[in-house]
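Incident log, structure service

09:12 report received: a user says their structure output differs between two submissions of the same chain.
09:20 pulled the input from the user's history:
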Amino acid sequence: MMPAARRGAGAQPLALAWAVAIGFVSGLASVGVRLMLTLLQWIFVRHTGLLPEAAAALSPVRRLLTPMLGAVCATVVLWAVRRWSKASCFEEYVEAVRFEGGRIPFASTFWRTVSSAFSLATGAAIGREGSMIQFAAAVSSWIGEHSPVRSIPRAQQVACGVAASVAAAYHAPLAGVFFAMEVVLGSWEWRRLPQLLFASTAGWLASYIVLGGGPLFLVHGVLSFSWQALWALPLALALGVIGPLYQASLRGLRFAGRWPLALVWGGMVVGALSLLRTEVWGNGDAALLHVLSGSATLSSIAVILVLRMFATAFCVGTGTIGGVFTPTLFAGAALGLALGHLLQLPDPLLLAVVGLSALLAVVTHAPVMAALMAVELTGQWHLLPLLLLLDVAASRMALTISPRSLYAIATPTPIEEVAVS
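09:34 re-ran on a clean worker, output below:
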């Protein structure tokens, strides 16, 4: 009989190879959802670029009605599934990994993804990446159920799939690894690090091959350390206090989910607010690009932030399926840049990147992931040591106020409980 040590040594390369396979497939699953969103967006608005740009090209009437039409389609999908499908209860990937051994019913996730796609493609002010990651997690769970590699538990295979899908969605392989460790697994399991790293890299590669690569929100030039960096710590600590209030504001309109045709009300709010600023449409990527371009004025930042906060809270409250990850990135960057303008700093973009990173750390309770996400998104790698320290301080501050994380917020309603009429 082969000694246990030799069996373990032989299993490790196989486990890493399987992690690469899961990561690549999960990355492709995430990319597939992204391409489906692009196709639906073209069908509804004849535009495949940023959603606010699509909204700007529409007449005011179509800008108002398009999110409502998408919400109607999303509602019909959920109603049809509840009426005719035998899909089992939905399971969020974080809860599935921690409490269900990685079991995520594929059918219910698939139909929720379809419903989400109609909302997201027509301007819903919520993150598309949540649906991309959830679907990829369900794919990796299905693979784990039928996996011939028993040395990797199913829950760990789902964690690998999530790491890969985060890397694919945000072109951030290192952040994907620590998202899986800090958010999904909830513990620093260093022995799992090689598998997560291989899977995340494979997911990023799958996205790079199909969609191309590069930082999504590149900040041009090098943000310098100067006396203005002294404001970074007060900003981070302030966001540690604001973060729980931000989460509470996203939960504050949950009552709207009990209204008849709740998703349509969410679409109506988004459409109406987009008549004031088109940046209300979508997950906030265009608004974040506007902030990080350095051309945003204090007044425009304030207006877009208020409108988007209300629109996102209403979408969350009415049960629109998606996430709030990218909207949170925008909110943090907007608050940081606004402070920089108020202080009349020569380069307020430094505080924008600090705000982006710190608010993400506060609401996810994942400071390492948040710091890595910030530098991978913006390309400002030299800020990593500073962001790590600030994110730890901000998240510790937030934990003294509230233990609740962002992932207790975004659309937990099972298909069977969606009220439509």
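09:41 both user submissions now match this output. Likely a transient worker issue. Closing.
09:42 reviewer note: The chain has two domains: 4-211, 227-417. Confidence is low (pLDDT under 50) at residues 4-9, 410-421.
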